Structures are given as C-alpha cells and as structure tokens.
Amino acid sequence: MEELSKQQESLLQSLRSRHGRKKHELCLCEGVRSCRELISSSPELVEFAVCSADFEAAKWPLSFLKVPPARFAKLSATIESQGIILVTRRPCTVWRDIPPEDPFALVLDRISDPGNMGTILRTARAIGLRDIWLTECSADPFSDKVIRAATGAHFALRIRECGPLPELAAELRSHGIERFYRTNPHEGVTCFSEKSLFERSAIILGSEGHGAAELPGSIPLTIPMPGDAESLNVAQAATIILFEHVRRQQT
Fold it and tell me: Rounded to whole angstroms, how far apart are CA atoms 44 and 62?
C-alpha cells in the first residue's frame, strides 16, 4: 500500500466543506457500512481509498493509501473512526432528460438537518424508490454527515436537486405528476385513508422549523396523532408515510 500524500490529505480536509465538494466535484464516504454500499452500487465513482494502518484492508477489493492510526484519527470526522474513507466523485444531481420511474415523487423541501436527510434517504432506498427530489436551501446530500446517516444509500438513488418548490413542481407536472400533498401536523387528509396518495402524486416533506413552502393547489397531508404531541420529527413522518406505501402494495 502507498502512503497518503500531503496534497491528498489537503484535498480530504477541503471536502469537509460544501464549497470544497462543489469545487472539486468530489465527496467523502466514511465508515464500513457506507463504503460497502458505495462499492456495491457505484464502484466506478471511487477516486482513491484511505485507511488506517491497522484496518483489515486485505478484505476489500480496493488499493488503499495507508495512514498511521493517530494521523487517520485527525482525518476522520467521527469520534470513533472505523478506519476507512473513500474519496468519490459527487454523483450527478441534474436529471432533467430522464423521466422519474417511481409511482410517486418524494420531495424534500429545505430539509436542513443532515441526520434527518440521511435517515429519509435510507428509508427511501429501503422501500425501493429510485428518485429523490430536493428544493434549494436543503442540506448538501453529499456531506459526510448525510452520507453516514444514510449509510451510503445515495449511491443507489437518483438525487435531483432543483430550485424553489414552485419550480420543482413545474418540472414534476411536466412528467405527469397530477397531485401535490404537503405534510401538515394539524390538518388535512390522512396518509392512511387518502386513496390516491401514491398515484401520480408528489409528497412534500417540509423543513424541520417551518414546514413545506406554500404551493397553490396542494393538498394538506397529516398523520393521525391521538396523543398531545405537537408534531413528529420529519424523518419519523417520512418513515410512516413511506411504509404506508409498502403496506398498500402488500394488501
């Protein structure tokens, strides 16, 4: 194994920022599970691999640049590193010429928390979605925190970054999407009773603090909460709604 150069180490550090990822069109995938997902779904994206000298690299189909454990700990973004980082090309996020394949569109509107976004991406992958739609001002889906939370699910999804919600809605309409549902914690049709919820529709999950942006003609969508909680975490809400789709497919 070769050793990591100073230039490569500087690149690793720059990819911790959104500006650096955009400038180099690269991102970081860290941790055993996320890296395995990347190698399984999109191995061609890997530019180079870095590991701690005590990492069991022989079990991986990669050529690693090795780093002493103490130095690797400084490169890692986690408190207890698993000893592996992959530098990978940032997947394309503009797919205007490719129509969506899913029966409904999942739209994330200004989701800013990396953990929530990663959890939603992981859940979307689990139920078999292919496309995820993001409005502007959302968290960077290829930040190391989002990738860790999603355990690398990104690399099996088409993440479509768009402009503000009205612009994104116009693009979805051009693909035949007919109805738009905006999650609302207090009122609306329920995700368990709305018959057309997953039929040529878009389900819009709003930001943690402000909810989804206004969209004329959209239908408020709610999750029944018999208790006295004000609302659900957006990742929890996404899981409930998405697995309602799975339940309907199996009944």
Answer: 11
Q: Find the radius of gyration of the CA atoms of the chain.
A: 20
- Rounded Cα distance between 78 and 180, Å, is 38
For the stretch 76-91, what's the b/e string if a residue is b when 16 or more beta carbons lie within 10 angstroms of its beta carbon?
Answer: beeeebbbbbbbbebb
Cα–Cα distance, 178 to 201 (Å, whole number): 6
Please give the Cα distance from 169 to 191 (Å, whole number).
Answer: 20
Structure tokens at 19: 């500006």
Sign of the Cα pseudo-torsion (82, 56, 122, 11, in order):
positive
pLDDT in tens, 179-215: 999 999 889 999 999 999 999 999 999 987 788 999 9
Its pTM surpasses 0.70 = yes
Domains within the chain, CATH numbers bracketed: 2-89 (3.30.1330.30), 104-249 (3.40.1280.10)
